[in-house]
Amino acid sequence: MSTSTSVAESYLNNTTDDPTRRAPLIVGDNDFHSVTDAVCGIIEMPKTPPAWWIAFFISVSLTGVLFAMITYLITTGVGVWGLQAPVAWGWAIVNFVFWVGIGHAGTLISAVLFLFRQRWRTSINRFAEGMTIFAVVCAGVFPGIHVGRVWVAYWLAPIPNQMSMWPNFRSPLLWDVFAVGTYATVSLLFWYMGMIPDLATIRDRAKSKVRWFIYGILSLGWRSSNRHWHRFEMAYLLLAALATPLVLSVHSVVSFDFAVSIVPGWHTTIFPPYFVAGAIFSGFAMVVTLVIPTRKFFHLEEIITLRHLESMAKIMLATGMMVGLAYSTEFFIAWYSGNSYEAFAFLNRAFGPYAWAYWIMVSCNVIVPQVFWFKKFRTNLIVLWVASILINVGMWFERFVIVVSSLSRDYLPSSWGYYRPSIVDVLTFVGSFGLFMTLFLLFVRFLPIVGMAEVKGVMPQAHLKDVAAQGHGDYHGDILTERGGVKS
Amino acid sequence: MSADTTTQETIEAEAMELHGLVASFDKIDEFLAAVAKVRDAGFAKWDTHTPFVVHGLDSAMGIKPTKLPFLVFGAGLTGCTLGIALQWFTNVFDYPYLISGKPIFSLPANIPVAFEMTILFAAISALLGMLAFNRLPQLSHPLHSSRLMKRATDDRFLISIEAADPNFDPIKTLELLESLEPLQVEAVEA
Questions:
Q1: The complex's ipTM?
Q2: Beta carbons of B62 and A201 less than 8 Å apart
Q3: Residues 100-129 of B with CB under 8 A from A
């Protein structure tokens, strides 16, 4: 990993702000062809790098652990986990919320930043969307196996079953099925659609018949026609406009699982925005954790620039502050509401048996991001990378604190206890990282990890040379000299 | 340009059955100016091929706005209606659930599922509608055999004019394309 000093002086540093000039989104001496080469080069490498194989071997082994644990769970029963009454929701739900949250950064980058015309998103959106899909896959595993009798998991869906009963649509748990199901589907569509032109690029460069055939089918015969691009752009805009409320709804619905119950510490109206902010926070942290080694390893520093990382650090700072505000608001309301159960739940969180987890959460989520006030740290890759990992740890603990501290001390002191995960819990969670990394490594090796067509569109070469014909601002609104003859 | 003479000779000598002619450019400004000229020549079956969305190209070509948003809106409404109908049918009509004395049908509880169904239907229709309007997947097309087309997904901007266009004339159209000073012109077999 580069040190900050060497990067700060090199041409790779595009973080300086000059009000008279837009900072370049792509640095170095790049044209359209060199971008194609840099991105396709990863897929076209004749030999897979040994480091990839090592990482893949470890990831696949961990995935094996995950499936072994799931098999053990299904053949034995949920008793193999550390669950107990009243802590009937343990690590499985913690992990579910953790992974779904991570996914949110991908949709935020691809959809929300698109609507806000944040053009820097183009270098990282494909990467983040891929991460979203893999995180949602990992998330989907946990509620699936948490139902206990997985062979009747289809009872979650409105499919006629042997009891002649329908699911209860007043239950937030069922809303969750629809929210996460829709989210997974729409994320996949968005990801795939954005990739079609890039898959066509790989097809057109293919040297082998096999690659030409596979990418040919995947790219659906895309011929870069502007009549097609026109509808493609509209579909992309529509999907972005649909995914934006969707991403906000998903973690809101996840938070309803808690907020609609009457458990102290869960029954709060602040949960939906608080969960969404936390989700974006953790998602950006995961993007940073993955993108720093990837850009270094595949030499993408000119495309995924220091400025991209700095922008992500700023978003982490903002969302980290929102999460911190939510933590303090919860305490204020616990006191201000005058509800003694609520007050107890929060004092118990901060000073009870799970205080250690609570303070890990506060340190990682509120204190760590404060380093991002300083540009020196925002542009220091080591600081950024370590902080992003700590934030991920903190966000996992946030969900742990919410789930376990509230459940382990409910209304009946006679049933209070101390929840401990079993080794199966731990190995299942570790295994889910294996699944995530396996999918991620396959993605990096076989699919374009940078949206080439989108990156090319924000390069200076993509815009008219004639200044008089240019629109305003960031190349927006470029027009050709005469529009009189255009009938549209 | 020697490359262009060869194109003309090929067309005449082999009397090849043309799909059309393709011209390539590498500068946006020259490309957009050329596109406007082809548009003004009054062709109907012609197209441009670019590695990314070129702003201003739609107006330079005179493309009408797509009807896709109407389809997506319709699909969204369908999803919303189905979402509410599903919840009404299952929890009110077919098997009424009486839960803690709550009303048997109350819209607020049905909003999340109706919302998700709206988004799901609209999003699927956006992708499938886009593909259907574009007549994709179309794995076999004469342009795929074009040599110049290989770089339309990389760094070249192309104009293609189909021989099926009523205004198409192998020699005159070739002259028109050459007058636009492209990098290369290629005749594509049908």
A1: 0.91
A2: no
A3: 102, 109-110, 112-113, 115-117, 119-120, 122-124, 126-127, 129
